[in-house]
From TrEMBL:
One of its GO terms (cellular component) is plasma membrane. Belongs to the myelin P0 protein family. Residues 24-140 form the Ig-like domain. It comes from Motacilla alba. Keywords: Disulfide bond, Glycoprotein, Immunoglobulin domain, Membrane, Signal, Transmembrane, Transmembrane helix. This is MPZL2 protein. Its main location: membrane. Gene3D superfamilies: Immunoglobulins (2.60.40.10). It is found in: Membrane. One of its GO terms (biological process) is cell-cell adhesion. PROSITE patterns: IG_LIKE (PS50835).
């Protein structure tokens, strides 16, 4: 009977330790979708949280999956220092834009092209937290910002400006009318 008690306790302890180990995984956070204009530069933001302090073995890998679902391509790697890709579509077009101490592992992609449409993945390992989520950012490169977006922005800014002008003008008119009414009352009181 005593052996079974120890075995049960060991199994319960093992399950609790496994749950703690899984809870200590790295969590990666990214924007789900980014829209950028052809020929511009875009920062792909990726941050992480870890139950462990940032270690010397922290590594970051960015990969790319084109829209046509062809093979994944390496984009960027970080281990103690940033490593740009030696070849491929992102050679000389990707730079490190993160800050490890602030848990930011973002990159900058330069001179975007329609062929850059696809999904970028950001994976972080921070020993002993080697497991965790993989962040995904879907990038859409468009030829130009659509008219509706520009129109909506212009209407919003214009409406806010007109509203402010109306409010200020109304306040000035009310103040002047009160001042004239007060001056009339004072004149009427002086003449009596």
């Amino acid at each position: 009977m005593r052996g079974r008690t120890w075995l049960g306790a060991a199994l319960v302890l093992g399950a609790q330790l496994r749950a703690l180990w899984l809870a200590a995984a790295v969590e990666v956070h990214t924007a789900k979708e980014v829209v950028a204009v052809n020929g511009t530069n875009q920062r792909l933001k990726c941050t992480f949280s870890s139950s462990s302090p940032v270690s010397q073995q922290l590594s970051v890998s960015w990969n790319f999956q084109p829209e046509d679902l062809s093979a994944h391509e390496p984009v960027f790697y970080y281990l103690k220092e940033p490593y740009e890709p030696p070849s491929g579509r992102f050679k000389a077009r990707v730079t490190w834009d993160g800050n490890i101490e602030r848990h930011d592992v973002s990159i900058m992609v330069w001179n975007l092209k329609p062929s850059d449409n696809g999904t970028f993945t950001c994976q972080v390992t921070n020993w002993p937290d080697v497991y965790g989520t993989i962040g995904e950012v879907r990038l859409r490169v468009v030829q130009k910002v659509s008219f509706s977006e520009i129109h909506f922005l212009a209407v919003t800014i214009g409406s806010a400006s007109v509203l402010m002008i109306i409010v200020v003008t109304a306040a000035i008119i009310c103040r002047q009318r009160r001042r004239k009414a007060r001056d009339r009352r004072m004149e009427a009181a002086d003449t009596e």
